[in-house]
Design goal:
By secondary structure, the protein is α+β, with helices and mostly antiparallel strands. The chain has three domains: 146 residues, PH-domain like, CATH 2.30.29; 61 residues; 173 residues, no CATH class. The chain contains 13 helices and 19 strands. The strands form four sheets. It has a seven-stranded antiparallel sheet with strand order 6-5-4-10-9-8-7. The protein has a six-stranded antiparallel sheet with strand order 13-12-11-16-15-14. The chain has a three-stranded antiparallel sheet with strand order 1-2-3. The radius of gyration is 25 Å and the shape is globular.
Length: 434
């Protein structure tokens, strides 16, 4: 199967404006339906029709002024009517390539191709929308070019599935999370008011409708984002597929993971469950992106046992530390709730830290990804001779730190970590981190 021709400008699919405006049009239809049912005047109907026409025209103009092409080892995207913008995205700086298919896009057989770039100022290259088969073919071609391969994309490689999240466990984990407990508390409060004082139910429910919708939206996003999540190992990286209505297929290239985090919420610990997430370099927010798109910390295991998380961790960080050092007893005076969770350990290529007051959080940082190390000592720490060492990476969400270590331990550890980080960045990797 041939790749996309170099240097040739291409347009997005003609139905892209309809998919872009789909959510707004659906929301407008929901708002307009009660007015039509109540038989409101023609002026309101005319205004709603005008809104539809304006949205359609804006989408059509955006489609007409947007084009893209593969130019050497770069992806170029030009857009803009009054102010023309020409963006060049070096493929060697790509951290991950995702294929996103919202519900309306799936209906028309379309998909969005999204490239997440490295660097604090790096943006996201977005091609929304392309035919689904073309998007998958273009993804393989861009991955090959980014890795210095040939222009022609290979046929889909065989992959080895590492895990699939059971739906029943995912539902249970969501309802035992903060969002699930909040939604349950709101529902329980409304039911209690309805039983105790039926006359007050209408007023209370009217004022709570916004919060109820927000809670339901949060629950749905978590469920749809992790539904039937499958993690597979392939030559081009770690492949993640998930979604019920809006589906996502992501490819995290080898060597692009900046840090790994494992979270063990209090209510999950009796079941032995945890959540494993990875942090990928790139900007945290991008223009015109919603909440799910802004999140760079991706759950490669939304919920699962520690054994499963450990097996997946070994694929991402082969040399993860095993032994960890407990905190000094003086930490009981400063942070009694955090004391039992504090620890850290290292090997010559990786550092692990644990922390948390209610939920236990464990962070792994490959030393080759460390951008800087910071020694921080607050006023209480100075009196107790404690210090915190922060490990900064190009990621934005995982902030690993050796918290509240005694000065006699922290200062030699800082010097040694600087040497190891410098050596890890200079040494060629025999087995790149996913």
């Amino acid at each position: 199967m041939s790749g996309f021709e170099q240097g040739r400008w291409r347009r997005l699919h003609p139905l892209s404006p309809l998919v872009h405006a789909g959510r707004l049009l659906i929301a407008l239809a929901v708002v307009a339906a009660p007015s039509a049912a109540l038989g409101h005047g023609a002026w309101e109907s005319l205004g709603q029709l005008g809104t539809v026409v304006v949205l359609a025209l804006l989408g059509l103009v955006a489609w007409l002024v947007t084009r893209w092409r593969v130019d050497g080892d770069d992806l170029r995207i030009e857009t803009g009517l009054l102010r023309r913008s020409s963006l060049r995205f070096p493929l060697k700086q790509v951290q991950a390539i995702d294929i996103v298919r919202p519900g309306l896009a799936r209906l028309f057989g379309l998909a969005e191709l999204r490239l997440r770039m490295a660097g604090s100022t790096g943006g996201h290259a977005r091609l929304a929308y392309l035919p689904a088969r073309e998007a998958d073919r273009l993804r393989r071609q861009l991955l090959a070019l980014g890795q210095g391969g040939v222009e022609e994309p290979a046929e889909p490689d065989e992959e080895r599935v590492l895990l699939t999240v059971p739906t029943s466990r995912l539902v249970a984990a969501i309802f035992l999370s903060r969002v699930g407990l909040l939604a349950a508390a709101m529902l329980g409060g409304l039911v209690t008011i309805a039983v105790v004082s039926p006359s007050a139910t209408r007023g209370v429910s009217g004022g709570s409708i916004v919060y109820a919708l927000a809670a339901v939206t949060g629950l749905w996003r978590r469920f749809n984002g992790a539904y039937r999540l499958t993690v597979a190992e392939a030559p081009d990286g770690l492949r993640l597929r998930s979604g019920l209505v809006a589906t996502t297929a992501e490819t995290i290239r080898p060597g692009r993971v900046q840090a790994i985090r494992m979270v063990e919420p209090l209510l999950w610990r009796p079941f032995g469950w945890c959540r494993l997430e990875v942090d990928v370099a790139g900007r945290q927010r991008a223009e015109h992106e919603g909440g799910p798109e802004r999140r760079q910390l991706r759950a490669v295991l939304p919920v699962g046992g520690r054994d499963l998380a450990q097996a997946l961790l070994e694929r991402i960080v082969p040399d993860a530390p095993g032994e960890r050092r407990p905190p000094p007893r003086l930490v009981l005076l400063k942070s009694p709730l955090r004391y039992h969770h504090l620890s850290w350990g290292r090997t010559d290529s990786c550092v692990v830290t644990t922390s948390g007051r209610v939920a236990r959080t464990t962070d792994w940082v490959p030393l080759a990804k460390v951008q800087s190390l910071r020694r921080v000592q607050g006023p209480i720490q100075r009196r107790l001779h404690l210090v915190t060492i922060h490990l900064d990476t190009a990621g934005r969400n995982v902030h690993a730190a050796l918290r509240d270590r005694h000065v006699a331990e922290a200062d030699p550890a800082l010097g040694r970590l600087v040497e190891l980080a410098r050596a890890a960045r200079a040494a060629p990797s025999s087995r790149p981190t996913v």
